[in-house]
Amino acid sequence: MRLLILGxxxxxxxxxxxxxxxxxxxxTTFNRGVSAADLPGxxxxxxxxxxxxxxxRLAEHGPWDAVVDTIGFVPREVLAAATALAPAVRxxxxxxxxxxxxxxxxxxxxxxxxxxECPPDADVDFGxxxxxxxxxxxxxxxxxxxxxxTLGTDRAAILRPGVILGPNEYVGRLTWWLARAARGGELLxxxxxxxxxQPIDVRDVASFALRCxxxxxxxxxxxxxxxxxxxxxxxxxACVAATGADSRPVWVDPEWLVERGVQQWTELPLWRTHxxxxxVDSSRAEHAGLRCRPLTQTxxxxxxxxxDGGTAITGSGEAARAADHGLAADRERELLQExxxxx
Length: 343
Ligand SMILES: NC(=O)c1ccc[n+]([C@@H]2O[C@H](COP(=O)([O-])OP(=O)(O)OC[C@H]3O[C@@H](n4cnc5c(N)ncnc54)[C@H](OP(=O)(O)O)[C@@H]3O)[C@@H](O)[C@H]2O)c1
Prior knowledge:
Layout: E1 2-6, H1 12-22, E2 26-31, E3 43-46, H2 52-59, E4 64-69, H3 75-85, E5 89-95, H4 131-151, E6 156-161, E7 164-165, H5 174-183, E8 186-190, E9 196-197, E10 200-201, H6 202-215, E11 219-223, E12 230-231, H7 232-243, E13 248-252, H8 254-259, E14 264-265, E15 268-269, H9 283-287, H10 295-307, H11 329-342
Parallel strand pairs: 1-2, 1-4, 2-3, 4-5, 5-6, 6-11, 7-10, 8-13, 14-15
Antiparallel strand pairs: 9-12
Helix pairs in contact: 1-6, 2-3, 3-4, 5-7, 7-10
The chain binds NADP nicotinamide-adenine-dinucleotide phosphate.
């Protein structure tokens, strides 16, 4: 198998490369070489996906059995990549997001729920009125169209993960909870403790993407762990167990936190009260071979990575978002004091 990864050095792209190399595939990566080191063993091609000439030059290094595009955010750029690479690849696997659904996170979703309307050649400013998450989702929907309209439905796999966690995570979600658990003491945990969550391990996303690449699996697929298999309490317990610290979760009423202006998703990562946030049905992908490891394993392996000198890349892009994640220690203490006085 010959695989091309657009990206390939941070998180998901890195996991893809590692898994493909382990399987004995020949792997080419395409990136600017500014943010992180290349994986040993890949053929690394330098270039900027915003430059059509770089993409045309890249295509000359083909052919490949498949490309996995981990870094498509602007339809016009994805259209350019798909156009340049169509003669050089058999299949195109595009990393989209659950954000393409107009109903996320407010309502439960399946693979056929309505998605944002966005032209396949839209530019980066399309949908600005939708806010950060809405615009991101609309642009991803336009990227999906760009791939499908260029390659055709028989050569395109569209992957729509929810939250991805695991070693090398740079958004700062699980890594924050682990670092917090390691600090010990009373830990503010957003109730209810049986709230279901369904993050997916980065290696399980990578494994499914490689299955699409090797077996020519096509279509669009939600990617998340089975609904209801894990709860927020499982997440917190796994963080405490992995770190071995003496953290004691104090489960706080979610409405009480909302009233105090605690920011969902960022100040308390992965916590969100919306009805549909963790109700994304991924059964189509399961039937096509998606397998999700237990959350406890993702947590333990991420802690092992963090304590083995693992540092998330900080070069550019989404890595900057890590600074937005997590509750300041002073604020947590004040909230807990108020909560403990109240009950
Ligand atoms: N994290 C989540 O929870 C989540 C959830 C749903 C969907 N997703 C999607 O999953 C994907 C995650 O990808 P990742 O960041 O983990 O991928 P990655 O392939 O591991 O890292 C990003 C790569 O893109 C390269 N890059 C950035 N800008 C570039 C440019 N202009 N030209 C060429 N290369 C460029 C970077 O290297 P250089 O900087 O050196 O160029 C890096 O190699 C995204 O599409 C995201 O929307 C993520």
